[in-house]
Amino acid sequence: MAGSVTTKLLYQNCDTFMQAGLKKKDRIDEDQLQLINSKRDIGFLGIRWEKTATRNVFKYNVSNMTALSEYIKQTMPQEKYFSIINQFQKIYEFCARTEGLSADNLLLSDLKNVYYDVERQKVFVAYLPLSENIYKCSNVVKFLSKLNKNASITITNGTVMQKYSFSLEDLMGKQNSKTPKNGGMSYAQLYTLLHDVLSIPVEDPVPAADTAADSPSPAAAAGADVPADDDGDHTILVNRRSSDCLAYLKDENNREFPIDHVPFTIGRRPDNDLSLTDKGTVSKVHAAIGFEDGQWFVEDRGSANGTFLNDFAENARRISKETITSGDVIYIYDAPFVFTVNSGDAATVIVGAAGKKQEPPKNKVKKIAYFINGSSNERIPVFVYPFTCAELSGIVIDRESNGSRHNICIENISCNSLSVEGSDVPAGEKTVIFSGCNFLYHGISYTFYEEN
Amino acid sequence: MFSYVTTEGAVRKVNQDSLFAAEAEFGGENIFFAAVCDGVGGLSSGEKASGYVCKRMNEWFAEDFADLMRRGASILKIRESVDDRLHELNDSINAYAEKHSADMATTFTGILIIPQLKRMLIAHVGDSRLYKITDEEIKILTSDHSVVAQDVRNGVITAEMAETDPRQNQLTNCIGAGLDDTSYDYSIGEYSENECYMLCTDGFRKKITADEMQFLLKPSINEDEKIMSGHLEKLKNKVIKGGEKDNITALMVKLC
């Protein structure tokens, strides 16, 4: 029964309309239609209903507006991004709290169905004034996730951004057939997320350049306990906090594994986010790190040998799910991983780089070798063999014992361009390298040095 | 064309540095092999170690290397052979030192220029250095195996701090000193005519700047071996005036 709404754009008399096609039997609710049309300044697109013998459509006037799917492609500051989400939260809240309206009738199935008025800096959402909400189109979580995925944002506060992304991923992970139409996120939850968890304060309405004069505060009808009710035309300032939360795991050899999304799975299978393929004591999917309600946690995924927290002994207590904080040691059976939440970094980064590992802290473990990238002069430290790294993907450096001496080998697993000191090393083969050895990896020259 | 200078210096009574340079003709072209070693150890151990390494490497050049060249071995094979020899020397120095309960060690920095392969092979362990000098610049081709240099590489201290660091003489790698299973640095590179290569022990380089070296050792002004040795002497005297207490050794070769 629950289907999706099809939309298309029409141009009529110098105006642009988004047309939502309905089933012929769908009955509209005139009260809702009138109410929505009178509350356009909340952020609703004006609705016209046209029904003929052959068609039953809503037309939304979107003249002079930009589809949100397009608008967010332009790089915007993080504050702006959250102000858009915040405006959406208010529209959502208005729908949910106003008698006669239903939040399930919001048309959120696609980012291109939501509009942005650049002049008024306002978000506009289409509402389906139907007496039965039979369309599957109002999944808030999916909508916000899409928005988050597609938006190009300059991040000024990595903590907030990361927490927000993780919360969405967490909710997305819970989506199933029993999820309510709104995707399992109420307006209050969204409000809490934005304002309590992310500490994004709502300031008094700041008069915009053109002061969006259409604001006789109809939102007052929405109730008083939420101080955020205004016409949505305000600036949001992100509260910079000192605690940042790009987190990572660190193994015994001080190798770092950035946790760039949740759930972050750990196990023996290679498709895990952290795969420990050479450890027989690790189950295929052993454990996972997640993020829920602003808290990090680790949970065991039914491993054979168990996951332990801060204490590993034969008879130590296996954990099933525990919250963790920076500094906790997670034992994947006997292999310890230190969970660390990075300290603040307000540097501006583009969202695509949000998951990028930050500079590792000073290593206490001695590095045993290093590479120098011939073009950038960057050093890649080696702390343990066999050594692999993202920069040199497809090759493995290993140490082989050879009586009283050792050899260092470079093995080409899956790289299609590797040559050592001028001779090609095809995939599947390996060759001995030495301290001071030069090799070309995809045309970039690297020099390998051992430290003694 | 090559020349060298070596002295026990102003303070020490013995010269623990050793050096050698050898040339061999093969297929109408001259192969050049030279190295400097800075011996470490009490009594006569230091010079024994450095002298022994020089002698045995010279033997390697005359025997093993000649054999390899005759068989048309690749530069990688030659490197392996040098590596095997140096590890063998390491083991025998350690065995000797244990027997005589002495501390023995030496650095080794050598350059082998093989025109047939159009390549040069640099073998290096310890804190001696190899410089490449052209008319435009002077460049260090080796990285010091010393505590100070390692700290600089790891960003613990800066190059300026390193100059006054009290741990100047602490090595992280050398031949002997009871070390086993360490690895030595090699680099395979190309060379061209009208370049000078200069091998020196740490005594030679600490009291003079790289620019001073380049000024006197650049290829264009070192037309023959006599001029070369005059310039090396000049630098040596400058080093001694600068207050260097260590042995001073430098060897340079100009390719032409």
UniProtKB/TrEMBL annotation, chain A:
Residue ranges annotated as compositionally biased, kind Low complexity, are 206-226
Q: Disordered: where is this region?
A: 206-228
PROSITE patterns xrefs: FHA_DOMAIN
| Pfam families the record matches | FHA (PF00498)
Enumerate the spans annotated as FHA domain: 264-310
Task: Note the InterPro entries from the entry.
Answer: Cell_Proc_Reg/RNA_Proc (IPR050923), FHA_dom (IPR000253), SMAD_FHA_dom_sf (IPR008984)
Spell out the PANTHER family in the cross-references: NUCLEAR INHIBITOR OF PROTEIN PHOSPHATASE-1 (PTHR23308)
Q: What is this protein called?
A: FHA domain protein
Q: Which organism is it from?
A: Ruminococcus flavefaciens
UniProtKB/TrEMBL annotation, chain B:
Write one Pfam family the protein is assigned to.
Answer: PP2C_2
InterPro entries linked to this entry: PPM-type-like_dom_sf, PPM-type_phosphatase-like_dom
Q: Matching Gene3D superfamilies, A to Z? A: PPM-type phosphatase domain
- According to the lineage, what is the superkingdom? Bacteria
Locate the PPM-type phosphatase domain: which residues? 1-255
Protein's name in the database: Serine/threonine protein phosphatase PrpC
Which species does this protein come from?
Ruminococcus flavefaciens
